[in-house]
Amino acid sequence: MGRRIMRIGILTSSRADFGIYQPLINELVLEKYFFNVEIIAFGTHLSKYHGFTLSDIKNKYNIKIHEVSSLLVNDSQASVATSYGLTTLKFADFWDNNIFDLVFCLGDRFEMNAAVQTGIPFGVKFAHIHGGETTLGAIDNIYRHQISLASQLHFTSTEKFKERVTELIQSDKNVYNVGALSLSEIDQFIPLPKHKLLSAFNIKDESYCLVTFHPETNAFDSNEKYALEMKKALAKLTEQINLVITMPNADTMGSVYREQLFLLKEEKNEKVFLVENFGKENYFSAMYYSDFLLGNTSSGIIEAASFNKYVVNVGDRQKGRLQSENVINAKFDSKEILASASICLKQKDFSGENRYYKKGTSKEIVEKIKNYEEL
Predict the structure, then answer these.
(1) Which residues contact 213 (CB under 8 A, 6 or more apart)?
(2) Phi-psi region of 107 (alpha: psi -120 to 50; beta: other; left: phi over 0)
(3) Cα 137 to the chain's mean position, in Å?
(4) What is the reported pTM?
(5) Cα gap 73→75, rounded to integer Å
(6) Do 41 and 156 belong to one domain?
């Protein structure tokens, strides 16, 4: 008698986690005699305000996709809390009507945590990717650790984070250091032809810096000041290089940054190019062709070193994460940001190691699932 095919769910709430998931989804789909893969899309995927990235998922995969709508467009503290509550209500119904052998969850966003916590009374078995990490400038730390506590399988990006998860759950059972999933098979990545990438997003064919800023959700009252300092620095930086800017996530106070970026675009139209959603392949290609990265996104910490890029990491949002030697840290101060950017402009390509890279990450995760005793 053959082995029963396992029903696997993939919880994805944003363009960011979906891009990270792709090597794993590809690997799971190939193992069709072991796994029946279904995507559970919610959060900003269903928001037209954030680019309605559900369409990207549908274009990418011909598999079952569940849609769970729960996100409010407003990003105030009250709206985030209300979205959290609404997500739990929607997922109470979803988990009651859908039984999976294992459900993957990734990262640390509030809506991801809401979906996971709601699964506890239903006995949903979760596999958490990117647990054990620290981001002192964001309330995501709390969400990330709560997700780890609710999960039965853990796939961390470094040995240090494996140790932290082990401390958190008070056990090393089913805790594996597999490296960063987004870097799985990065050595085989081939960027899109530059002219096609630039043409698709109306970007001028000149040197550019790739920019991504998100709010610091642990410094709620400071974000207006930070957004102004960001704009001031970016406006000055356009005198030296063009800026390709990816827009903020649906975090508390994200709209404050979006407003300043739109103003920057009005003032420096020929030098600034705003992109709502690149998608993983396009974003990696944009990183490949960029001169350097600037902002406070995890991609600067985790992925940029594999593209030989230097990074200006601004503020405390990523503080506490392990860094490779390509990262230059700066405070949310326009002069300090510009001074750090000037260093990057003078540097050649980064040639050091990426501390998050481990060969065959997605394949290792799949093999661990196949041998997971409690499924």
Answers:
(1) 227, 230, 245, 248, 257, 261, 295, 296, 297, 314
(2) left
(3) 15
(4) 0.83
(5) 6
(6) yes
- What pLDDT digit, counting tens, does each position of 184-210 carry? 989 889 999 999 999 999 999 999 999
CB 303 within 8 A of CB 283: no
In a domain, 1, yes or no: no
* Whether 227 and 179 share a structural domain: no
Q: Nearest Cα to 349, choosing from 297, 298, 303, 292?
A: 292
Tell me, what DSSP letter sits at residue 131?
A: T
Q: Could you tell me the two tokens for 149?
A: 């506590």
Cα radius of gyration rounded to whole Å, the chain: 20
Q: What angle separates helix 223-237 from helix 334-346, to the nearest 10 degrees?
A: 40
Q: Which tens digits make up the pLDDT trace of 263-307?
A: 999 999 999 999 988 888 999 999 999 999 999 998 999 999 999
d(CA 245, CA 243) in angstroms, rounded, equals: 6
Q: How many domains does the chain have?
A: 2
- Residue holding tokens 């998860």? 165
CATH code of residue 242:
3.40.50.2000
Tokens representing 317 are 């949002």
Which domain range does residue 200 map to? 193-346
